[in-house]
Amino acid sequence: xxxxxxxxxxxxxxxxxxxxxxxxxxxxxxxxxxxxxxxxxxxxxxxxxxxxxxxxxxxxxxxxxxxxxxxxxxxxxxxxxxxxxxxxxxxxxxxxxxxxxxxxxxxxxxxxxxxxxxxxxxxxxxxxxxxxxxxxxxxxxxxxxxxxxxxxxxxxxxxxxxxxxxxxxxxxxxxxxxxxxxxxxxxxxxxxxxxxxx
Length: 198
Fold this sequence. Notes:
The chain has one domain: Growth Hormone, Chain: A (Up-down Bundle), CATH 1.20.1250. The chain is 85% helix and 0% strand. The chain is built from eight helices and no strands. Helix 3 (26-50) packs parallel to helix 5, helix 4 packs antiparallel against helix 8 and helix 6 packs across helix 8.
């Protein structure tokens, strides 16, 4: 659940970030969306042929880390030449992650209880997504974006990385969310390895 919260928090600011950095270019936004769609289909085909990891938890955690790294690149980038391949790579990870998570639920949960468990999981995920959307707007529009586009300490500190033009604040939040996704995946991996050796 924490993964999807930070993912959806960043995703809520993805469109305004791209539009702000491209002077409102719907064409660029559409191209990135196409790249993401192709990445998702490619990832699904690869997983269908390969079958995924024998231990599904590795697929979940690898997908989290891979998606986080790709989204971090999107956040740090300022031009379509960076966004297009990064978004493609990001979307490649989700079929592996989602199919692996489903495999875990299917094998660990009693068949009689699976309907209720899947329903509860879906409701909780949607609640976290709604909360992320509620937080993202005010955080981006009223706090971070103004701070990054004016002469504040935050702008002086991080302006060299994200710039100080329109969209810099959105990019900062987006990249922070991506780093959080990586951290969640790494924490899960280290916990899994620790549990494996105890």
